[in-house]
């Protein structure tokens, strides 16, 4: 009863009920995300009014919004392949019916976000992944080293799948340069 009397609960309940849609995960996903909505969903699942689902994995479906927001259809197509086929399909295979971990979801979101940032950087320069040269990739690496080094996974995937034939990306993790012995850091 205390929860029902909280200020943000009543508007959320009203929005759910007045939508005139059957209450499903998809209908709730279409509403603005909030803690109240997440709690309501969990109560509906606990009472078997909604089937249980892996909420972390379902949240990954939001990466498709990042795909749809790309201006260039080439970037949409490449990003969809990277997110859906490289990451999500592989994750589903690894889970074997178990729920996704917070870290697995976080890693995928970060890698897709880094790919988006690189594609957006290309777009602001009138480039595509296909037309990008190694010199331009190196400019990206110099301008945002942390994010750029994390985007190496995307670049390696793009090279393997023939979306970026003029690029190279380091294999393995890239770490910050350390000062030479005796040099101040």
Account of the 3D structure:
This protein is an all-alpha fold and 185 residues long. The protein has 10 helices and no strands. It has helices at 9-18, 25-29, 35-46, 55-60, 63-68, 73-95, 102-124, 134-143, 145-150, 152-160.
In short:
The protein has 185 residues and is an all-alpha fold. Helix content is 59%, strand content 0%.
How helical, in percent, are the residues? 55-70%
Strand content: under 5%
> If you compute it from the alpha carbons, what radius of gyration comes out, rounded to the nearest whole angstrom?
21 Å
**Count of runs of 4 or more consecutive helical residues:** 10
Tell me which oligomeric state these chains represent: single chain
- Which spans of ≥5 residues are poorly predicted at pLDDT below 50? 173-185
- Structural class label: mainly alpha
| H-E string | HHHHHHHHHH
The rough form would be described as: elongated
Key attributes of the depicted protein:
185 residues; mainly alpha; elongated
SSE inventory with pairings:
Elements: H1 9-18, H2 25-29, H3 35-46, H4 55-60, H5 63-68, H6 73-95, H7 102-124, H8 134-143, H9 145-150, H10 152-160
Helix pairs in contact: 6-7
């Amino acid at each position: 009863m205390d929860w029902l009397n909280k200020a943000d609960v009543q508007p959320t309940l009203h929005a759910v009920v007045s939508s005139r849609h059957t209450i499903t995960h998809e209908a709730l996903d279409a509403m603005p995300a909030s803690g109240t909505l997440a709690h309501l969903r969990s109560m509906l699942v606990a009472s078997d009014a909604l089937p249980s689902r892996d909420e972390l994995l379902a949240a990954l479906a939001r990466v498709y919004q990042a795909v749809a927001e790309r201006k260039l259809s080439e970037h949409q197509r490449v990003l969809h392949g990277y997110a859906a086929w490289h990451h999500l399909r592989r994750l589903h295979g690894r889970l074997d019916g178990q729920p996704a971990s917070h870290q697995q979801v976080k890693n995928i979101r970060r890698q897709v976000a880094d790919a988006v940032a690189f594609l957006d950087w290309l777009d602001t320069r009138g480039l595509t992944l296909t037309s990008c040269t190694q010199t331009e990739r190196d400019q990206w690496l110099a301008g945002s080293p942390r994010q750029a080094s994390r985007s190496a996974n995307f670049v390696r995937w793009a090279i393997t799948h023939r979306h970026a034939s003029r690029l190279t990306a380091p294999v393995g993790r890239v770490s910050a340069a350390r000062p030479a012995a005796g040099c101040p850091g």
